[in-house]
Design goal:
The protein has four helices and 19 strands. By secondary structure, it is mainly beta.
Amino acid sequence: MSNHKKDSIVLHFAVVVLLLTSLAARGDEPGCTPSDAPSAQADSTAAKPAEPAPKPEPFAFADFTWLNGNSRQHKPVFDYPAFTGEVRVDTNYVYDLNHPQDHTLVGSSELGRTDEVQLQQLGVGGDFHYDNVRGRLLTQFGMYSTMTPRNDASPARGQWDLANAYRYVSEAYGGYHFDKMNGINVDAGIFMSYVGLFSYYQYDNWAYQPSFVSSNTPWFFNGVRIQIFPNDHFKEEIWLTNGWQSYGMFNDAPGIGTQTLWRPNGNWSILSNDYFYGKDTLNNAGRKRAHSDSSIEWKYRDTPDSKISKSALSFTFDIGCEYGGGVTCTGGTPAKPSQYFIGFMLYDRLWFDHDKYGFTLGGGAINNPGRYLVLMPPINGATAASGTPYFTANPGDPFRAWDASATFDYMPSDSVTFRYELNHRSANVPYWSGPGGVTPPGGNSGAPGSLVSGFQPDLRKAESRFTAAILVKF
């Protein structure tokens, strides 16, 4: 993309933001009166117009705490006029039947170590709201503070070490709420993407390890987001971001996308995330990316006084591709192979004894030739930026995988979940950590991801594991 076209994209988006904010603000300025307003000399005894009814909060018409990816708390613990606090603690233990000697788990954006108790996430912060000004901050301490930046290759371009600058922040943005329609929010910073249905925070989810269409797609975007609520059943988001789950920009163009969410009643939620354009391959400015992610959730049973108090189903389908820069979406050749992502996941959730217990069965599958969304195995310290010769991601390299899981939750209160989960994952190529692990004897050696003389990582085609976790949210 030429600089002229890039400037045009940014300029058009800026014009949209300015138009929306100016239209939303019109009539709200102090001293502004409509042209047909009565004059100051009007009869003071005339009846005053009734105060307009308060607008309903978005999606507050029903209880959506049953949704996968949505907090099940019915009200916040810390709630004050200008601040709603939030504390999250996620601690886990993973027992991997492959027994990697270096205790390193491969292929998960949620878990990284085995046979140890690990703090995955400690988040402290909340939402600030005063006079229509809004902001959100949530910290990111624990395993996430190194795993999440490691999957972002953009800090390798340029200076100031973006991976360290942002590693302790999961969400941080500020913006303004306009009282138009059912609300318009304009925010800038780091915000959750929810491409892939599951939440970044395990407390909100039906399962701990989501399938590939969630685990391999973005958890966050860094940029500008506009949320438009025409009514309390519908939301449209517009994104202008640095790129595909990236702190910085991979090349010379921003990522552009939208989210559409419709909840017609309390039993259905229909979501579509669409990433229309991005140039998200480091050092390959000719390669472009598009991706579509659609989910539907259906609560098909709600009988609070029965043994099964609730039942719900979720289905997610993803399709996307890369084109240009040596690859094509379809109809590839050996010289210019097809490079795409297609996958699905399906989960069924049951609640028992007035929602005190939960049981989830689910899984999914992907096909991702070129491996452009496959998480890089951390062989000899490899990152998304470094890559590794032990597991290539060249155009056309095949990767097909499937997984299944069974999850049992004990939820004695709205603030804690005790979770137990069995997972099995399988791929067409060796990918998961085997008994020999992925770390050279004596630790990482040389540059991240580089070859080590005499060392060969132990990668296997399948993995089965058990996870136990305590998930707390205040």
